[in-house]
Amino acid sequence: MIEIVSGQDLIDAGMPQGKWFRPALDAANKVLSEGGSMDVAIAAARAFQPAPTVPLRREGDIKIYSNIRAENAFEHENVEKVNATMRALARTPVVRAAAIMPDACPAGPVGTIPVGGVVASEAIHPGMHSADICCSMAISVFPGVDPKALLDAIHSVTHFGPGGRAVGQQIKPSEATLAAFHQNPYLTGAALNVGIEHFGTQGDGNHFAYVGTMKSTGETALVTHHGSRAPGARLYERGMKVANKFRELLSPETHRENAWIPADTEEGDQYWSALQTIRQWTKENHYILHDMAAEKLSAKVSDRFWNEHNFVFRKSDGLFYHGKGATPAFDGWADDATDLTIIPLNMAEPILIVRGSNAAHGLGFSPHGAGRNFSRSAHMRRLGEEYGADQRGLSPNNMADIMAKETAGLDARFFSGNADMSELPSAYKSAANVRAQIEHYGLAEVVDEVIPFGSIMAGDWQRDAPWRKKKRR
């Protein structure tokens, strides 16, 4: 009689049943078919047994530093939701510490890192920087340039909305950046193609080009806000697939969005390298727009700097610090770091130029903006109730009244031609409260401001889409 190894044999040998049984049985029976003993066959099967999975931490095991306080009933609900999601997130086995910024707001199901969240971990979590990798700020100072002329110039060279630049109008990143795309398996193919197509574009949502004057000198400044566009989104998608393969193997109980790529793996090394390439692409993407505006005006830039607020940083302690909508405020956060960073609030408020304080209770971070107490759709419902809108939404007269009220004295523009009511100042938390909490918690020191003249955002580019027109009818 021919001896074979069965699944029951593996169970009797103390092995937990799973999908891995099929290849394990194939290997064991190959040993027997080649004249090996049953003991050797069982040993061959055991080699396929997954390592023990890592259990979730207990709630309360990890310190969560909360740097946020509720100023009213609406903010109280927001703070409760933020704390709840961070408590669930902190059960992830490799997480070592977490912090909440004053502008925090939920960004998904409970357990998902909120906007305004900071997480220190032994590994890299693609879900904790999200698809908008390296969302960031850049400022260039244009001495002697009229603010309106600068706003007109950036309006003429930038690109907001979906997709990239049309064929014939595309701009290539630097050769060094393109070479880095070619060399990294996470960034080849589609990511490389859109890396060219989307270069020199700013996207939609809360991204902007803002012109104002420096409070300290009166000089005109351009501030841009956007992330890595489609190249970053492609990297995020690929990173999440790899992270979830590790999650299924190492910690299937972990929330899917908190899956991680172990740092001491080839996949981890390559992903870390890909993040640095995306960072360089995004920095170049900011400055190419600034440079094109300068060329349009035949103007000179006297000073410039930038910082990301949606990224992963590695400190000397070896941990990876994930800032989801959080500005680095510790010394030497990057090789090109200055001692200053940029915090916007809303289009009607000054943009803050700050110096970080490396506060331990903030894990070395400060806020990235004013944040929201309500989702975009919830804010629109509230506006509708306030202005008596019907089921079709706000009327053109309603929107004109709101725009006039909220952008008085500003040159507020929308690239698509349609205003986005969900990006007006009332959609955001109180700028004064966020600023007060930055000072209260000692997260950063405000050293200068950019006083607003005007700004450009994508606007509601979907408003005139065929499907939207049909729904209105």
From TrEMBL:
Protein residues bound to Mn(2+) 2: H225
Enzyme class: ligase
Coiled coil: none
E.C. numbers: 6.5.1.8
Residues binding GMP, per UniProt: P344, L345, N346, M347, H368, G369, A370, G371
Identification of the protein by name: 3'-phosphate/5'-hydroxy nucleic acid ligase
Swiss-Prot/TrEMBL keywords: GTP-binding, Ligase, Manganese, Metal-binding, Nucleotide-binding, RNA repair
One GO MF term: manganese ion binding
Active-site residues per Swiss-Prot or TrEMBL entry: H368
InterPro entries xref list: RtcB (IPR001233), RtcB-like (IPR052915), RtcB-like_sf (IPR036025)
Source domain of life: Bacteria
GO biological process: DNA repair; RNA processing; RNA repair
Cofactor binding comment, as recorded: Binds 2 manganese ions per subunit.
UniProt lineage: Bacteria, Pseudomonadati, Pseudomonadota, Alphaproteobacteria, Hyphomicrobiales
Ligand binding (Mn(2+) 1): H207
Cofactor section: Mn(2+)
PANTHER family found in the cross-reference section: RNA-SPLICING LIGASE RTCB
Catalytic activity: a 3'-end 3'-phospho-ribonucleotide-RNA + a 5'-end dephospho-ribonucleoside-RNA + GTP = a ribonucleotidyl-ribonucleotide-RNA + GMP + diphosphate
